Amino acid sequence: MKTFRPIITLFVCTILLTACEDFLNITPEGQAKRDELLMTAEGIEDAMYGVYSQLRSNTLYGQELYFQTLEVMAHNLYCNGNEAITALGNFEYDNTNVKSLFENIWTTMYKNISNVNSVLDAPLVAEAKEFPYTIYRGEALGLRAFMHFDLVRLFAEQYTQNPQAEGIPYATEFSLKTPEFESLQKNYDHILADLHEADNLLSNEEQYEGEGNYMLDRQIHFNKHAVKATLARVYLTMGDNTNAAKYAKEVIDDGKFYLKNETEVKNDLAGVLSMKECIFGIYHPNFFTQVNAKLEQTTTRYSLDLRPDYKDIFNYDNSGNDYRVSSYFTTTTQGSTQLDRLSKFTDIYELQNNVASRPSDLILGINMIRVPEMYYIMAETSLDENIDSALIYYNRVREHRGLEPLETITLQQINEERYKEYIGEGQLFFNMKRLHLPITSYDGTTTYTASKYVVPIPDIEKENRY
Fold it and tell me: Taking the complete model, does pTM exceed 0.85, yes or no?
């Protein structure tokens, strides 16, 4: 049965992608279709599949908010000769291409937030008291918080620098009415409220696993562990180390996720969800197409190159054999020039035209939250008060990547480990913004300060209010 679930999911999502404009359109006819769809558990599940499928769009996590835009801004990747990518890397927010890029991210995310709000507004979900409606509501609230959180991290100031700064609109209704902008503090209040309610609603989800297709493959749903991991992220971003550690530890101590051994690092993220480490991922059967064209190939003005000094950080302490180097990167030849490629996401079965050999229990997709992040959060939040505890969590990931344990650590070393683990996954830019760290350009000629990291609200958003 497991072999056919991704096919079924793809079929459902394909239908939803072509139909969701009809039943989620805010017109009298569209409203009626939406209301009719959301009157049954099956209809609600279809709508939720539609929300998940939108997350994998190229504008969102299928490209821009994963391996392209955020990695170019962090200067881990670049593309010489591509004016739009170059302008993005230079933080030229007035550039037409850059403005269009962020406008698309903004509008696509809010459209999907509206989609999830349509589910939350449905009576069966809004008044959820029992399974399966509590599951639908918990997932929807978690996703709403998750999407708003990434918008806040991108389009607003860092919370610890100025919690009363202008935030973004927090949309809680499926409506033509655009919510008002609010302070960053209120944004985080809303995010936390949604996540805590989701945490409560999903607390007993394990007892329902296997009851229908929707409760299978919980990695590709915003499950209870994804909620706790996101709470850890949010609290860390807010500078609340106590709560960040609380939720990160809950994920680790649950025992559902394990750090893969050093020999399991290779191909573990290669177009599939990590079997041991993925807390939440997005099912994406065609992710290889984007990854291959942008990261594996060497097309001028289109594909993305690694910053030349990327290996330096892997060798900073020369203690052991870091399996991530040979697993995440490959070298190809372009003419007489050798080029390094970020290959950690490249599906080797697709690349070798050998799809039939792929194990049937692998889920194609994008790893959105992985358990090593929880260990880094535990290490960072323990650093000042319990160095021994910090070392335990920090060294556990190192040893599972083939490195020897260290006897002392600093925040800089934790960040270096984050870099090695998460390069290409869209998280390093947010980490540097959170810590107010400078970014050195890929060619080493320019240093960008944290004042550059706040993306302006798209003009179209404020123009449409008048």
Answer: yes
